[in-house]
Specification:
With 401 residues, this protein is of the alpha+beta class. 33% of the residues lie in helices and 24% in strands. The chain contains 13 helices and 22 strands. The chain has helices spanning 16-25, 40-44, 71-76, 79-88, 108-120, 172-179, 198-205, 237-243, 259-272, 278-283, 288-297, 309-320, 376-400, and strands at 9-12, 29-32, 51-54, 62-63, 93-95, 100-103, 124-126, 131-137, 140-145, 148-152, 154-157, 184-190, 194-195, 211-218, 221-229, 233-235, 252-255, 322-324, 328-329, 337-342, 360-362, 370-371. It has a seven-stranded antiparallel sheet with strand order 18-17-14-15-16-13-19. It has a five-stranded parallel sheet with strand order 7-2-1-11-21, with helices on both faces. A three-stranded antiparallel sheet has the order 3-6-5.
Length: 401
């Protein structure tokens, strides 16, 4: 009869990375999570349809103090490997813009797939289980939990980051890392809406709910996607993307189109019908509320025929090079990911194993590897989980051999 508290591997976290690791680790595996169900963040992702990977996923889509760290795992378990698994389970999916892959039906299909794979692998899933403490003696990890102690020679930390605390995110993985001598790269919210001072917030209120394609830049980074105006500030894909690169007190530049194209359009419309009001002409190019905002900010009114090329160019410049300084972000409450995390200098890029303590692994969001919006963070979860799981399985096989 098996010892009910003795395992080959204990995985902390029943999210994307943790379940993926458990599937591949081999031997007797226990997955522990304080939540009532597995894969809660998977369930709410992608509007409930889970943007589970991106066909363009590569090292260039990730942020880390060491940009080379993610290469090994991403190369050895790719987006195509995960798509093969999705197809194997008969899950219907489709591609949206920019290579994003979504479930046709529900994110629950991905959760069921992972649970089925874990069941086939004989994984023990322990939900509603709180972690009270961890010790390491004689090459064995002891995890004290609300349901008693569990022991294993391998411990995998897949606890995620601090984002979306209402779902139970606590940052416990960072404390475990520090306990075992790992450094933490400063964490902050990523893929998160930006907030602004009261003056701009008041101006944005009239545009709340408006979305428009735009180019958003900060420092040397630019994204071309939609911007959404909210009562609190700016959101939408382009803003979420740039938020991961934005630094406090620095400006962002928002552009709605090309300056030369807008100027050419305004000149042409002035020629066609000079008696049209400039506000209405601009509303043909950008959303009406935005058109009103930029015309008012530039002090422009009346017919377009009365405006010189210089004034039209100034308007085009304002619309395409709108410089704003955010006061901050909405924080972890609405952040999709956590930037920073366990310093990759202390981990093997091939196996995700600690360089300080044998048998200790860190995977997924808890590590200082953060993907762009669009399925990239899920791919990191699959790739890093697979890398750790297969490394554990191979090491166990080698020891038994």
């Amino acid at each position: 009869m098996k010892n009910q508290s003795q395992f080959d591997t204990i995985v902390l976290g029943a999210g994307a990375a943790g379940m993926m690791c458990a599937i591949h680790a081999g031997g007797r595996v226990a997955v522990l999570d304080h939540a009532k169900s597995a894969g809660d963040k998977i369930r709410i992702s992608g509007g409930g349809r889970c943007n589970f990977t991106n066909i363009y996923a590569g090292p260039q889509n990730f942020i880390s103090r060491n940009p080379h760290f993610c290469k090994s795992a991403l190369k050895r378990y790719t987006q195509w490997d995960f798509l093969d698994l999705v197809v194997k389970h008969g899950i219907p999916y489709h591609e949206k813009t920019l290579g994003q892959q979504f479930c046709d039906n529900s994110a629950k299909d991905i959760i069921k797939m992972l649970l089925d794979e874990m069941a086939d692998a004989g994984v023990d899933l322990h939900l509603k289980t709180d972690i009270l403490g961890i010790t390491h003696d004689d090459d064995l990890y002891t995890v004290s939990t609300s349901k008693g102690a569990m022991h294993a020679p391998n411990l995998v930390v897949a606890t995620g980051g601090k984002s979306i605390p209402k779902m139970g995110a606590t940052g416990i993985g960072y404390k475990i890392a520090e306990q075992f001598g790992h450094s933490i790269i400063e964490t902050k919210p990523g893929l998160v809406p930006l907030t602004f001072g009261d003056d701009l917030k008041a101006q944005f209120s009239s545009m709340a709910g408006i979305a428009s394609d735009a180019q958003v830049a900060t420092a040397d980074t630019t994204f071309d996607e939609a911007v959404l105006f909210t009562h609190r500030g700016l959101s939408g894909p382009a803003i979420l993307q740039i938020s991961s690169y934005w630094r406090e007190s620095t400006p962002i530049i928002v552009g709605f189109g090309s300056q030369s194209d807008i100027l050419d359009t305004l000149r042409a419309k002035r020629q066609e019908n000079g008696r049209r009001a400039i506000h209405n002409v601009m509303a043909d190019i950008i959303p009406k509320a935005l058109a009103t905002y930029f015309c008012d900010a530039a002090g422009l009114a009346g017919n377009i025929a009365d405006l010189s090329d210089k004034r039209l160019n100034e308007l085009a410049q304002a619309v395409t090079h709108w410089t704003l300084v955010p006061t901050g972000t909405e924080g972890y409450r609405t952040a999709e990911v956590t930037l920073g995390g366990v310093d990759t200098d202390g981990l093997s890029s091939k196996t995700m194993e600690s360089k300080h303590t044998p048998g200790l692994y860190f995977i997924g969001e808890v590590v200082d590897v953060t993907g762009w919006l669009g399925g990239y963070n899920f791919q990191w979860a699959w790739s890093s989980g697979w890398a750790a799981g297969t490394a554990i399985a191979q090491n166990s096989s080698h020891l038994k051999g």
